[in-house]
Write a structure and sequence with these properties.
505 residues, alpha/beta, Rossmann fold, two-stranded antiparallel ribbon, 17 helices, signal, Pept_S33_TAP-like_C, Alpha/beta fold hydrolase, Serine_prot/Carboxylest_S33, TAT_signal
Length: 505
C-alpha cells in the first residue's frame, strides 16, 4: 500500500510519523557521525539475464555500487550490512547542481531504478544532477529479508463478523511470528531512523556536504525524518504525496475512510457513463449497488476467481486500491476488475485480467512476501501498536456505523499488533524550518491532502503545491500533470520555493 497507504504502483504502505526528539544530540547520531564510509566502486548494474532494471540502468548510462554500513549505528565496528545504490550521473558537469537521493516509498519498495523515471520527469534538468537510487536497508538488493509468509500483503478488511476478525487476528499473529523466528536479532534495526542514518552515510560516501532529496509517499516521511535528524544537510527537498507525520504507524489508515468513499463514488460516476461497455449500472447509485452486492456475496461465500478464493476481507482492499487513481486507463482497468468480481458474485466462471490477477497473486500467495515483509518490519519497527485485538474491534465497530465498506478496512489490525520487539527509539517529531516543496492531490486516498497540510505545518519552511480536483497518489513523474512538473522542475533548477502555496488544476 504503497501498506497503509496504497500507492498506485504497488499495493504497499505509505504514511507518516511523530513523537520524540531530534537525533542530532543522541548517542546513535554521534556514533554514526564518527564512522567513515568506505570508498565506492562503481560497476555495471545488470545482475543476470532477467534483470530488466539493471539492463535499463546500464543502457541509460547509470552505474551501481554497494556501500557497507553498520547494522547498529550505535556500534559502528559491529555487524555490517550492504546497501545497493545506482547513480545516473549529471552529463552537464559545467552546470551541475548536485546529488539527489530518491525514494519510491512503500515502505519496502526498491528504488534502484527510480533515477530513470525521475530523470524523465526532470527533462533537460536531469543533466545537472547525479540521481541516486538507493534500496533502503533490507529492501531490494540491500541485504534483502523475506519472512517467508504464505500470503503477501497483510492488509485486509475485518469483514462482517467477529469470528472472521478473530481468525484474521490469528493469521496476523502467525505472520509476526514468522518474522521473529527468522530475524529476531535484526528486527530492532529495521526502521526509518536507521534508514535516515544510512542516507547520511551515503551522502558522506558520495563526498557531498548537502544532498537534494525527492521522496514519494512513505518516501516523503523518510525525507522529513532525515531533515529532522540531520539539519542543514539538504539542499532541495521534494516530498510528493506526503502524509501527516504524527500518524505514521500501524493505525495510519484510520480516518481516511471519507477519501476512499469519495474516490469510489467518483469512479462510479465514470462507470455509469459507460454502462454499455461494462454493464455495472446506468447510474452512479446502481454502480455502487453492484459493488455492495459483490461485498455481500463474498461475505456469504468466497468468490471463485480463476484459482483464487476471494472473501469479504479482501474485496474492500481491492476496491480501495482500484478506485484510488482517476486517470482513464486506471479507471478502465478497475471497471474490468469489478466486472470480473460481479460475474463471480453471480456464480459464473471468471478468468481474472492482468491487473486483478496481479493483485490476487500479490495478496494471496507467497509472491508478495519479499515486498510485504520489509514493509511490515519497517512499519512495526517505527511505532509500537496496541496489542489487544479488542482495541481494533471496537474501532472497527465505531467506524462501521458511518463507513460500512471501508471502516473495517481502515481500522483493522496488522502484524504490528503481535510484533515481537519494541521500537528502539521514539518516533521522530517532525518540526523544523527546512525548505521543501510538498506536492499533494486533493483526492489522495492514501496519504491524504489533510495529511500533506499537516506535513506543511510541521516543516515551517515548506510550500504546499496542490493538484486540485484529482484522485491520485504519487504525482510528480507519475500522474503526468504538466503544471506540477513545471513547478517542481523550476524549484529543482533554481532552489527558490514559490512565494505562496501554488495550485495546479
Amino acid at each position: 500500500m504503497r501498506t497503509t497507504f496504497t500507492r498506485t504502483r504497488r499495493p504497499l504502505i505509505s504514511a507518516l510519523a511523530l513523537i520524540a526528539l531530534s537525533t542530532a544530540a543522541t548517542p546513535l547520531a554521534k556514533a554514526a557521525a564518527t564512522a567513515g564510509p568506505p570508498p565506492l566502486t562503481w560497476k555495471p548494474c545488470t545482475q543476470g539475464p532477467d534483470d530488466t532494471t539493471g539492463r535499463d540502468l546500464d543502457k541509460a548510462g547509470a552505474r551501481c555500487t554497494e556501500l557497507t554500513v553498520p547494522l547498529d549505528h550505535s556500534n559502528p565496528s559491529g555487524r555490517k550490512i550492504k546497501l545497493a545504490l545506482s547513480r545516473l550521473p549529471a552529463t552537464d558537469r559545467a552546470h551541475r547542481i548536485g546529488t539527489m537521493v530518491l525514494n519510491y516509498g512503500g515502505p519496502g519498495e526498491s528504488t534502484l531504478g527510480m533515477p530513470l523515471e525521475t530523470g524523465a520527469a526532470m527533462k533537460g534538468l536531469a543533466a545537472r544532477y547525479d540521481l541516486i537510487g538507493l534500496d533502503p536497508r533490507f529492501v531490494g538488493r540491500s541485504t534483502p529479508l523475506d519472512c517467508g509468509w504464505p500470503i503477501g500483503m497483510w492488509l485486509r478488511s475485518a469483514g462482517s463478523t467477529r469470528a472472521g476478525f478473530d481468525h484474521q487476528a490469528a493469521v496476523q499473529r502467525d505472520l509476526a511470528s514468522r518474522c521473529a523466528q527468522r530475524y529476531a536479532d535484526i528486527l530492532p534495526y529495521i526502521n526509518t531512523r536507521d534508514t535516515a542514518r544510512d542516507i547520511d552515510l551515503v551522502r558522506r560516501a558520495l563526498g557531498e556536504r548537502r544532498i537534494s532529496y525527492l521522496g514519494i509517499s512513505y518516501g516523503s516521511y523518510l525525507g522529513a525524518v532525515y531533515t529532522q535528524m540531520f539539519p542543514g544537510r539538504t539542499d532541495r527537498v521534494v516530498l510528493d504525496s506526503a502524509g501527516d507525520p504524527s500518524k505514521w504507524g500501524a493505525k495510519a489508515m484510520q480516518g481516511t475512510e471519507p477519501e476512499a468513499e469519495n474516490a469510489l463514488r467518483g469512479w462510479a460516476k465514470w462507470a455509469a457513463r459507460r454502462h454499455t461497455t461494462y454493464g455495472l449500472g446506468a447510474t452512479p447509485a446502481r454502480v455502487l449497488s453492484t459493488v455492495n452486492a459483490i461485498v455481500a456475496a463474498s461475505a456469504k461465500r468466497p468468490l471463485r476467481i480463476g484459482q483464487y478464493d476471494v472473501d469479504d476481507q479482501l474485496i474492500p482492499y481491492i476496491l480501495s486500491v482500484g478506485s484510488g487513481d482517476d486517470r482513464t486507463p486506471a479507471r478502465a482497468e478497475f471497471a474490468t476488475t469489478v466486472q470480473a468480481l460481479n460475474k463471480a458474485a453471480h456464480g459464473r466462471p471468471v478468468t481474472p485480467g492482468a491487473g486483478l490477477s496481479g493483485i490476487l497473486s500479490f495478496t494471496l500467495t507467497t509472491a508478495g512476501s519479499p515486498l510485504a515483509s520489509p514493509s511490515a518490519m519497517i512499519t512495526c519497527g517505527d511505532r509500537a501498536a496496541p496489542h489487544n485485538p479488542d482495541t481494533y474491534w471496537n474501532d472497527i465497530q465505531r467506524s462501521r456505523k458511518r463507513h460500512p465498506l471501508f471502516g473495517p478496512l481502515k481500522n483493522n489490525l496488522w502484524p504490528c499488533a503481535f510484533w515481537p520487539t519494541k521500537p528502539r527509539e521514539h518516533p521522530t517529531q517532525i518540526a523544523n524550518p527546512t525548505p521543501a516543496l510538498i506536492v499533494s492531490s486533493t483526492g489522495d486516498t492514501a496519504t491524504t491532502y489533510e495529511g500533506s497540510k499537516a506535513m506543511h505545518r510541521a516543516l515551517t519552511g515548506s510550500r504546499l503545491l496542490t493538484l486540485s480536483g484529482v484522485t491520485a497518489h504519487g504525482i510528480y513523474g507519475e500522474y503526468g500533470n504538466l503544471c506540477v512538473e513545471a513547478k517542481v522542475n523550476a524549484y529543482l533548477a533554481t532552489g527558490a520555493l514559490p512565494t505562496t502555496d501554488p495550485t495546479c488544476h
